[in-house]
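QUALITY CONTROL LOG
STEP: pairwise intake check
CHECKER ROLE: data steward
CRITERIA: each record must contain a sequence immediately followed by its structure tokens, with no blank fields

ENTRY 1 OF 2
RESULT FIELD BELOW
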Amino acid sequence: MPHDGLIAWCFLVGLACGGPPTSDSGIGETSSIGETSSIDGSEATVGASTGGETEDTSRGMESTRTGSATVGTSESTDASGEGFASHHGSSGEPGSGSASSDPASSSEASASDDASTAASNTDGIDPCSQQAALTVATFNIRYDAGGPQSASSPNGWENTSAPRRDMVVTLIEGMDPDILGVQEALANQVDDLVEALPQYGFVGVGRDDGLEAGEYAGIFYRRDRFVLQDEGHFWLSDTPEVPGTVFPGSGSIRMATWIRVSDRRSTRELFVLNTHWDNVSQSSRVASGELIRARLETLSAGDPIVLTGDLNENETGAGILVLTAPSTSESLVDGYRQTFPEPEIDEATYHGFEGTTVGSRIDYILHDARLMTTDAAIRRDDVAGSYPSDHFPVTSRLVWSQGEEGLACQ
């Protein structure tokens, strides 16, 4: 078949030609349950797990499907002038919603700091105004292979000449998100981001043990805007409260992290969930969608919902349709597709460090009807042909769809 015809055919059937498979086959991840695959030709062994993919969103961006820039290195500053709130590796009762079982933990202390600051710094502006808009990003940062590879590999997190760590930090600073969901971050990567981004609070645990082992599907939130009200996490399995458990057929341990925050600007409450679905089993992805759908109804407590994640399938996948199919009023909206209703052939978010654009998205920002996406982008930033991750981050600009007393925003 001619090349042009092949691309058109792949697009019509929803395949990411030249990109990773999105059905029951691996997408360049190291399985934590028996098998090891490789993206860059080298096997990785990271405790019992590894994973993923990414997307992005930009503050004040013009309407554009994709954005790119040359990423440099820069020092971050703390916009709030306060210390960093880190809920890193605090297990408490997994999935219970408590920050930690230890009342003296940094989780509870930092949440208290956020709350005390908010008490004297609540703007209370009109939710319909542009000042109340939210910038949300999702970014699979690609796990750090560790060992000598981390410094010697061209795509190493700590590469001696062009560390991915610095590229990831600079890209996040450039996106300037209010909320950021990250996938595949290992504990040392979380520590690096925590240190480099003191303007953000962080909530997350390692997926292997509910503490610090394995990948995190964590959430960064801007401390000068949000007050952390509650947090939790659960595993994508038949026993969601048990760390390290999986649905049958899964290739890796998978989990979700969530937070409930108060927005100082609009005085609204917001529920945010970040997750990373299995790359091997479609039945696992469907079960993950069903579990998350059920959990959203109870954990969100009626608050507006934002979901970020590497879902490892395109927008017509059976798992995503559990969340987005317009069968009920609780269905979530694909923010990127709300902005760009017509699918294009160059929407790939996974690119395997090659910068490939042809293909479908597997990284998403979803939300309920109380929010609306007015702009979105797939960020394709690079440094002289080197990329911060094997995923492109995705960003969305969200506005509230209702103002005071439930009246529709104009």
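ENTRY 2 OF 2
RESULT FIELD BELOW
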Amino acid sequence: MVRPRADEEPLTAAIVELASRYGRYGYRRITALLRQAGWRVNAKRVERLWRQKGLKVPARQPKRGRLWPNDGSGVRLRPQHRNHVWTYDFMTERTHEGKAFRLLTVLDEFRRECLAIGVGRTLTSDDVLATLAELFVARGVPAHLRSDNGSELCAKVVREWLGRLGVWTLFIEPGSPWENGYNESFNGKLREPRYYPILLTLVSTGIRLGECLGLQMRDVDLEHGWLAVRRSLRKYQESSPKSGKGRTVYLPHATVELIRRWLDVIRTEAAVRGEAPHWLFPSQTGHCLDGCHVRDGFRRVLKAAGITRRIGLHDLRHTYASLAMQRGVDILLISRQMGHGSVAITDRVYGHLKPEATREVATAWEAILGRVRRNPRATPADIPA
């Protein structure tokens, strides 16, 4: 009888735990995660244990068709042209000192265009009327106006005013925000400036994305302007930095001031949840972020800026090193800041960007050749360094 290995049970438990956390991963990707966690295992053994436990990736559900009726009636009316269907909704945010304020966003569903954003500590039905009246004068009157059932949006004065102008109101079903999908999606993207501190930290320090996401509150010292890179975070799994050891990274003054304001934001969010902040760059729920979310946000930033060239998030690291080399920063300091295993790696990748490098060599050889021309019998010992 074949005896099971001593690590069979803990390995099986690790496979089941990872399969439960990453429901769309097969045994090959689970094998990669196990290796990152320190297991010395191949895919065939993982596949055997995978099948013994009856694990499998659930089949993808067929994509649903559009929810709008074919006749264009009802709540889910599909926009056909400009000013056909507008949508508007409220969202709540907080300032750096923790005080709440509200935003009223108005969109044209056909053009996917934000028409107006009203801001105030409190917004009432009168504010809704004022915003819509200004838009109707500037943009024209829409045929339909979609919204949820908020008290400010379905107030009697609002409905009567819209009725006199010939605007049909489309109220979504209570508790069904997906029926106002365009506006909900826009409001979610409007909150994405929370990725800005991460992007500025990446481009101003040269650290890796996983190292940035792995930063905790105790790793930053704003009084002295540095942060300590002690771990890397990938797929919610902690590991040591790529070079195998931690390092101290110094921050520019602008990054220090931004992180100082950012700390006020996350402390306020944590206080609302009744807990202390742990991660330096957490999600809105206080948990650690996944790199794919930051990459998606970065792509949307590039699209909004009109940049069509394909640029990856890791290119911010190359940007840091390239600018530092062109400014004449010592290559050893750049290598330490970026966490390269040796300065040879930095020199091989970025050494050509140092503008004085070849000029210094040419100047040195010019001096040597000049002395040789003046004294053809000179030996190497006669030529001073």
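INTAKE CHECK: passed for both entries
DESCRIPTIVE NOTE, ENTRY 2: The CA atoms of residues 53 and 127 lie 59 Å apart.
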